[in-house]
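Technical appendix A lists one of the benchmark inputs used to test multi-chain prediction within the project. The record comprises two sequence entries:
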Amino acid sequence: MDKKYVRKKELLSSRMDNEIVMMHPESGKYFALNPVASRIWDLLETPHNLNELIEKLLKEFDVSEETCCKEVSAFLKEMSEKKLVVISEQG
Amino acid sequence: MVNNISFCYFLKKHYTYSAFGLIISSEIEIPEFVISKEKSNVTICYGNVPKTLKKAEHEGFRYQISKNEFLIKYSTWATYFVCNGEKVIIQPEKNADERDIRAFILSTVIAIVLHQRGLLPLHTSGIVYKNKGVLFAGNSGIGKSTIAIALNKKYKYKFISDDITVISEQNAAPIIYSSFPSVKLWQDSLDMLKISNNKLPLIRKDVNKFRYNTNTDFYSGILNPYAIFVIENNVQNKVEIIEIKGVEKFNIVRNHIFRAKMIKELYSNEHFKLLTLFLNSAKCYKILRPKDVNTINELSSMINKIIKKV
């Protein structure tokens, strides 16, 4: 539950207006993040657990805690599967 | 009898040029390029090329490629070997016309030199506005050169490139290098631009494309980016220009990396860094214009307005 997530550091990423484009250097695959996902990506520059992310996002976006929790969990799961975020070793 | 064969080697003529931010020493004359007196960092010479590459990562129709080596055989004209971004060897076929040999240097071969050097060659023409570069991307035949020349003739923008424009970086900022002063134009483009083909040399032996020199209208040097316009055909019978934002910018401009299909993903890390750096300081527009309709006046006037208010 307290797992902290952080960006995979080998990724190349760049902001394009309010979105983010990324490239996985080994697979050469490209990914795009929409504005909300880009905000989570900004936060994941430093390790965050699920609750910390939700707490920060609730302050910025007009969304219920339940929806936010569901969507951020799904986002982290997808980003982990795609090897774009990893579990932080700092705990 | 004096045997002076070895002596002849030293008498071989060499031309030194500047183009794409490179200084090129060439055994073949390239009248399109600007003559330079600086020390060269790329050489082009005649010689024997390897039969195959030792470690080819991709093979395609008539070519082999690895990150630092490239071999391509145009069976009627010549085989070219490019290595380490600094050497081009040409092995010509018998009776090949020098114009044809040169034409491949000015497109695929020089583009591979640029890729091997970690630069980003885009398939665009370009002009200058307030010391910044404005580029026009698009597939072959879409009118990249025509629009650049029209804007030059009508609104006096200086010209920087016809077909390949190089993006690089300097002190962590994106830069554009000018290419060379010459433009390839088909007869229909000359008609649209009201330029007579009288006295214009043909670029290739049997191709009806002419070399037009922009001479004093050419800007030689380094520029900061300003904007990139991507030209596409419109299914509707009108001209439209739409600003593109976000990741879509990256997606549409990436399609116009020169010879992208040939190089696969060999240089994708370098390209990602340079392309995102470039797009973060250039506005991006899509031009939609009807196919086979002469819209050059309307289009150049619309582009001129956009450039001046960016």
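Chain B has two domains: 13-117, 121-309. The CA atoms of residues 137 and 277 of chain B lie 17 Å apart. Comparable benchmark entries are summarised in Table A2.
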